[in-house]
Fold this protein.
Amino acid sequence: MTWASFLTLLEGTAVTVLLSVTSLLIGIPLGLALAGGRIARIPVVSGLIAAYVSLMRGAPIVTFVLFVFFGIAALGVSIHPQIAALIALSLNTAAFNSEVWRASIVDFPIEQLYAARAIGMTRALAFRRIVLPQIWRTSLPGIVNEMTLLIKGSPAVAVVGVVDLTRAANRIAAYTYEPLPPYVTAMMVYGITVLLLVRAQQKIERFVVKKYGGL
Amino acid sequence: MIKNFLIIADHWSDFAVGLGNTIWICVVAATISVLAGLVGASALVSKNQYVRVPMRLIVDWLRCIPFLLLVYMAYYGLPVIGLYLNSWTAGLLTLTVYNTAYISEILRGAWSHLPPEQEEAGRAVGHHGLLLFIRIIAPQLYAAAGPVIGNQLIILTKDSAFLMIITVPELTFVANSIQTNYYMPFEVYLVTILLYWGICRLIEIGVKHVEAISNRWRLA
């Protein structure tokens, strides 16, 4: 592989990492908000969230990226493909994360919430001090699982012309007629990233079990 | 806006062709990978390390890489070793291989929760070898792993949209070409997403039915 190919791959890696990390930073809290809104049984809003989550979980990420990019452009707003990709990935992962959050919230022992309310905490304070510190631990395995799914879905952004790691590898393969080196490099980068994520999750889980005596 | 939906209605036959292709390729890939996953799972629990270790490496490798990367490798990479696949073959092959890895791992997980007494009881009444596997083990693996396999089939269906990139004329590809002609992305992709959503609902309903049937068996 030449130096230029290496640089292209490096740029692609940067795009993939940046897109994934930013969508996670948006998608994970947004997922929590969606789960909260759905469980709170707000008329209309909860129903809309349920419909949104269901639709999003049934939509291919490729189709959704196209929908966001061309859909926004059709409104007359010119949008950078990378921003469209970011919006699509964030909205997508938010829907999946909201299901993980929701499962943890539903499993949360309601007595603790009653107790918190009984000693005078407001709902918001009880959520911040009592619920959240516990549900993030039960949600962790599910959230990490969604993270790896997001990373593996991120090559979909290629359909609107964003050059991520997979696209970069493909371009180099097309220029050099030697597909093996770039593809193998890209595979290794994905493999190591997913491995690191899973390892980090195991580390955090072990730490949590040690500190709190369970997830 | 309503006018745009009418244009889409005029093109219903194009959508039907795309939808048909998506369903066709997904059903074939799903059927093969659900069956081949049984062989894969057997390899993953094999006592022979020359079978088990390579299979473990292949399955872990496939589960780490994005589907699109595998598609590129098959479509643009294989010609280097003289293997030219058209987009259909490459799409079907990658969709099948990729999901076989996942389903092998799912079935292996179900296998590790299967009480060993089941196999012992099977042997006690005289089953052995392949028949023991087909009659006693495999049905229980599918029953136990049903919902997880259902989830994987939904992922398979959504992954099939990646195949538009190598020009397989599936649903997203058709939607994209209609969109390019009329420039009404919102309506076209909305209809497309709803169609995918419908397929996913059907898979969920199917899994529920299979579950109900297998529960009835278990009670009997």
About this structure: The two ends of chain B are 55 Å apart (CA to CA). The CA atoms of residues 34 and 171 of chain B lie 23 Å apart. Chain B is about 85% helix and 0% strand.
